Amino acid sequence: MSKFKAFLQRKDIEFSWKRYFIDALGAMAQGLFCSLLIGTIIDTVGDLLISGGAETAGNFLVELGKYASAMSGPAMAVAIGYALKAPNLVLFSLVAVGSAANGFGGAGGPLAVLIIAILAAEFGKLVSKETKVDILVTPSVTILVGVSLSAWLAPWIGKGAFAFGELIKHATELQPFLMGILVSVLVGIALTLPISSAAICAALSLTGLAGGAAVAGCCAQMVGFAVMSFKENRWGGLVSQGIGTSMLQMGNIVRNPRIWIPPIVASAITGPLATCLFKLEMNGAPVSSGMGTCGLVGQIGVYTGWVETGHAITAMDWIGLILICFVLPAILCWLGGFLLRRIGWIKENDLKL
Are 326 and 219 in contact (CB under 8 A)? Predict the structure, then answer.
């Protein structure tokens, strides 16, 4: 047993929550961002140019966006392999694995890619540099394991993830108030934790009203922490958290969990407002549901959904989007932070980055 443990250590194979559900999941979200999400944004800009009369430039961007989106499976798999510290031959072989897993996984492709890319990468690492014909053995094992699992397992993973996502969406439609709170709070918390809310939303194909609630929760965390900590972090902190990530506050949350109260309360308020009052839906790329105000991806995703579904955009839609994503989180968290400072639950520099 000790020899086997030593072998795994030599291969840098670590069975841990951090390695698989923080490092790998976070990397997967980056891969998804750099392919499907960017592709969707470029595609949307192209459509806007076409509708504005600039057809040549618009068609070029639409085509470019489709190429980027089509590579989401390989991009996610390679990102996961990179996070797992896979050797080069394993890493490059994951291109085929990601393509197969995403294809066979259907709507639940991202979750299938996460599970299967991890398994294929670890099997590839086991045999890497163990033979004199490594250039043949390592890619063969990685691809054989990954593509075989994709054909056998990915459809079931995809169906399961899709069914669970549909259950959340259906429940949100039936109980928009309660589910608006639940989805908003949980996805918002996931955004600030060192895991990927974007990858979770993508894996579950979280769109519709549930996607709108997820956007609300993420915005409450990002804008909330940015405004609440302005006293300590000024403009740099406002930008880095407001359009970057609220994950920057994770260390401070560990030291004083009470600083998390205002953003969580804000998400519990804006979530049901999004679902019940403004009927805010995310019908763009599901990954956008878990991005909040990061690069304004959440808002671009909502707009993309309006365009793609032929939604007649009204002034109320814009008012709802601005209030839910920016104004209400800022006001609620500033007020919450002010009250907690007054009663001594938040002290000087508790929010300092």
Answer: yes
- Of 22, 80, 75, 44, whose CA–CA distance to 200 is shortest? 22
Q: Measured between alpha carbons, how far is 170 from 173 in angstroms, rounded to an integer?
A: 5
Beta strands, E only, 159-239: none
E strand intervals along 236-326: none
**DSSP state, residue 287:** G
pLDDT in tens, 110-126: 889 999 999 999 999 99
Residue 257 covered by a domain: yes
113 and 102 in contact (C-beta within 8 Å)?
yes
- Tokens 């691809």, located at residue: 143
Strand partners, 315: none
| Angle of CA points 161, 165, 171, to nearest 5° | 145
Residue 270 in any domain: the answer is yes
Of 33, 42, 38, give the one whose Cα is nearest residue 62: 42
CA atoms within 13 A on the CB side of 246: 33
SS3 for 344? coil
Residue at 324 is within a domain = yes
Cβ neighbours, 10 Å, residue 18: 11
> What is the pLDDT confidence band of residue 96, given thresholds at 50, 70 and 90?
very high
Q: Which residues fall within 8 angstroms of residue 18, CB to CB, at 6 or more apart?
A: none
Q: Which domain holds residue 61?
A: 2-155
Residue 276 carries which DSSP code? I
Domain endpoint, select from 155, 186, 208: 155
338 Cβ contact partners less than 8 Å away, ≥ 6 residues apart: none
Give the C-alpha separation, 83 to 92, whole Å. 13
Spatial separation of the C-alpha atoms in residues 33 and 115, rounded to whole Å: 18
pTM value is 0.75
